[in-house]
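Predict the 3D structure for this chain.
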Amino acid sequence: MLRICTAVFSTLLALVLCLPLPAHAASSAATRAIDDAEIATQDFSGQDLREAEFSNNKLAGANFSGADLTAVVFNGVDLSGANLQNADMTGGMAYLSSFSGADLSGAIFTEAMLLQSSLQGATVTNADFSFAVIDKDQVKALCENASGVNPVTAVNTRDSLGCS
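Done. Predicted structure below.
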């Protein structure tokens, strides 16, 4: 059993190392860490936060509407009930983060990686998740209420999630 697990892990690691990354992906040296003083107001609406890194922050109810979140990293961040309407998180990553009850209407998550993150109860009307990596159970829950077409990318939300 250990040999099988080792072989599977080695194969997956080789695939990850061989696949090209999007050109906009940032190395950790280029990312800008956001500290607690910068998040005191929790109003990031319309801001350019490209390649910013949020780690273990409590941003429940924060306003990211219209923000440029290209290649942003959310690591262990509480974004429950946050407003991400019309935000662009292309190529971003959220790991162990909560978007529960968040408003993602019109948001763009193209090529985003939302790994082990909760999207329960999130509003995804007119959102675009094309080529995003999302846990299967989260996609299933999102498909229950997904509708509309993204106004920027003209992509159907249900199609971008792969809903049947």
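The longest helix spans residues 2-18.
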